[in-house]
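To: structure desk
From: M.T.
Subject: fold request, one chain
Message: Could you run this one when you get a chance? Sequence is below, nothing fancy, just the single chain.
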Amino acid sequence: MSEIRCEAGKWKLIEEEATLPDGRVAKKVIAHRPDSVHIIAHTSPQSILLLREYRPFLAEWVWMLPSGWMEEGEKPEAAALRELREETKKGAKELRSWISCRYAESIQSIQHIFIATDLYDAPLQGDPEELIEVHEVPLVQAVTDVLNDKYAQHTITAYALLRYGIEKGIAPKSGA
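Reply: Done. Structure tokens follow.
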């Protein structure tokens, strides 16, 4: 059984059923939303671009990777390049799909994370309701900032930076 309970914008709340391995049936309302892309954009091997974006419904500035929703029918790579250009005004000669993850079972949306290198100027008009500052940050500082809760309002950014730092051999230091 699958029944739409609510639709708003690009979101749908759908009551769904799933069968457990022992045959019992579980029911849950699942939020469906478009998949997203997030980009670790290197300005050099030691630095990346981070956004400081004002989020009016949180009434605060949020630090995050360049990120955004995929349009219907859009491939993840194309969405990543578009979002990078809209939010940082940079293109990338090299874009590598790195990892994908999900928020939770109750939110159906895949988060595609990319690594972008060899950046160049390639401005594209961004969303008119966004207020974004672009900052170049040393990768070591960005990884350290995860443990200092700088990215607590954007968990995908925190997860991606911490995992990327570990893979790069960066040991974050709390309180730095």
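Reply (cont.): The chain has a mean pLDDT of 94. Let me know if you need anything else for the meeting.
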